[in-house]
Amino acid sequence: MSILAVDILKRLLAHESLAQSLQFAQVQRFLDFTRRVWPEILDRGAAPLALPLHIVAFLSAVLGLSPELVKLSWVAFKDIAEAYQKEPIELDLDDAFRLHGNDHHVGAEAINPPISHCHRPECCKQLLTDPSVVEARLYTLTRGVLPVYSRSLYCRSSCNLNL
């Protein structure tokens, strides 16, 4: 089952409190998280009418929603969640950068200098130029090793050379 935005919109509009409270990203995260905890949700092999309370508490915490909105989201999106969990899990964003980022010279994070103007008084706060880009790796505890491109900028100012 391909999930279309119009399907989600119809369900949001059918439940006014969801339409007034949920952002699209929260709906997507709701579906992503229910997919990950699907075995915890199942009741004797079938999707239950109501989510288990520990799942409601978990989704409430990770989505920043009240338990009531999580329960109502389950009512609205249960069948979409059920169909969604049967589809193959797509690459996470970081994995996509790991696979394709270097081929296209796009990093998972931007490593840029903290300043864009020269801080030396004799340079009249000239804009730093002449970018130099180096392929690098960013080591993180939570996301693993990520491909990045580190950019350096240089001052090529001729301001106040007569000092």
From TrEMBL:
Lineage: Eukaryota, Fungi, Dikarya, Basidiomycota, Agaricomycotina
InterPro entries for this protein: CxC5
CxC5 like cysteine cluster associated with KDZ domain: residues covered: 108-161
Protein's recorded name: CxC5 like cysteine cluster associated with KDZ domain-containing protein
